[in-house]
Automatic annotation (TrEMBL):
One cellular component (GO) term of this entry: plasma membrane
Family affiliation: Belongs to the ABC transporter superfamily.
InterPro entries documented for this protein: AAA+_ATPase (IPR003593), ABC_AA/LPS_Transport (IPR051120), ABC_transporter-like_ATP-bd (IPR003439), ABC_transporter-like_CS (IPR017871), BCA_ABC_TP_C (IPR032823), P-loop_NTPase (IPR027417)
Occurrences of domain ABC transporter (ranges): 8-257
GO MF annotation terms: ATP binding; ATP hydrolysis activity
UniProt keyword annotations, A-Z: Amino-acid transport, ATP-binding, Nucleotide-binding, Transport
Name of the molecule in the record: Probable branched-chain amino acid transport ATP-binding protein LivG
Purpose: Probable component of a branched-chain amino-acid transport system.
GO biological process: amino acid transport
Length: 257
C-alpha cells in the first residue's frame, strides 16, 4: 500500500489535550533519503506531530507507520530501536557529563539483547567487542561533526550551536534511518549552521531521511526538496518549495498568524 522508498507515513493523526485539538487529522509520507521541511505558524501542531511520531505522546487518533509497520503508541525507545529518532535534548543532568560520556549514553537499539548476552559467560567477549565498537563509532561521529576536540569538555560548557551538533551526533549514534529535527538551528551561529546543513546533506546522500522543522524560511526553501505546511493541526500544503512560496493559502495562513 505504501510506495516503496517512503519509510515514514502518517495518516489522519489526531492529538487532543483536554478540549484543545493540537493535531487535527494530519497526514503525509516522507521520501527515503530526502530532506523534507515541516513548517507552519506558531502553534500549528508541528512539535506535537513530532511527539506523536516518536512516542512522546500516544496520539488520540490516526496512525504512524515506519516501513509499513504500525508504530503508533509504541514507547520512544521502541521506536528509536526501529530506526526512527529525534534529536535528544541535553538536559541539566547531561550537562554535568562530558561530551564523550553523553555519546556513550545515547539510547541503543540492542540494549535489551546485550543485557541477556552479559549474563551468558560464553558471549561476554562479544559484549566487550560491542562496547569497543560503540566507543569507536562515538569518536567517528564526533569527528564527523567536528566536535571531537570537545570530547572531554562538559556538555554544559558548550555553546548553543555546539550543543546542537552534539544532540545530532547522539541521535545518529542510535543508527537511525529517519531523523526528525525540531528547530536544530535555533541559536546556532552562521558558521555552525552551514556545517550542520552540510552534514545533513552528506548523510542524506548516504540514505538517511530527514524531516526538519525550522522557522527560517530561506533555510527551508534552499535546502529542502519538499515542504509540508501545517496550519491549525492540519496539512495545508505539501509541495516543492517554489510552489509553496506561491501558495495563496500558505501566504494567508502566515499573514493571519
Ligand atoms: P508548533 O510546534 O507548531 O508551534 P505545538 O505542536 O507546540 O505547535 O502546539 C500546538 C498546540 O497544542 C498549541 O496550541 C499548544 O499550546 C498546544 N499544546 C502543545 N503541547 C501541549 C500540551 N502538552 N498540553 C496542552 N496543550 C499543548
Ligand atoms: Mg514547535
Amino acid at each position: 500500500e505504501i510506495p516503496p522508498g517512503r519509510p515514514l507515513r502518517v495518516d489522519d493523526l489526531r492529538m487532543e489535550f483536554g478540549g484543545l485539538t493540537a493535531v487535527d487529522g494530519a497526514g503525509f509520507a516522507i521520501e527515503e533519503g530526502s530532506l523534507t521541511g515541516l513548517i507552519g505558524p506558531n502553534g500549528a501542531g508541528k512539535s506535537t506531530t513530532f511527539d506523536c511520531i516518536t512516542g512522546v505522546h500516544r496520539p488520540t487518533g490516526g496512525s504512524v507507520k515506519l516501513h509499513n509497520e504500525e508504530i503508533t503508541g509504541l514507547q520512544p525507545y521502541e521506536i528509536a530501536a526501529r530506526g526512527l529518532v529525534r534529536t535528544f535534548q541535553i538536559t541539566r543532568e547531561l550537562q554535568e557529563m562530558t561530551v564523550l560520556e553523553n555519546m556513550l549514553l545515547a539510547p541503543r537499539g540492542q540494549q535489551g539483547e546485550s543485557l541477556w548476552r552479559a549474563v551468558l559467560p560464553g558471549v561476554r567477549r562479544s559484549v566487550q567487542a560491542q562496547e569497543r565498537e560503540l566507543r569507536e563509532r562515538a569518536w567517528e561521529t564526533l569527528e564527523f561533526f567536528e566536535i571531537d576536540h570537545l570530547a572531554e569538555e562538559y556538555a554544559g560548557n558548550l555553546s548553543g550551536g555546539q550543543r546542537k551538533l552534539l544532540e545530532m551526533a547522539r541521535a545518529l549514534l542510535t543508527d537511525p534511518e529517519v531523523v526528525l529535527l525540531d528547530e536544530p538551528l535555533a541559536g546556532v551561529n552562521p558558521t555552525l549552521e552551514r556545517k550542520l546543513l552540510e552534514r545533513i546533506d552528506e548523510l542524506r546522500e548516504q540514505g538517511y531521511t530527514f524531516l526538519l522543522v525550522e522557522h527560517d524560511m530561506d533555510v527551508i526553501m534552499e535546502n529542502c526538496e519538499r515542504v509540508i505546511v501545517m496550519h491549525q493541526g492540519r496539512v495545508l500544503a505539501d509541495d516543492a518549495p517554489a510552489a509553496i512560496r506561491e501558495n495563496e493559502q500558505v501566504i494567508d495562513a502566515y499573514l493571519g498568524a
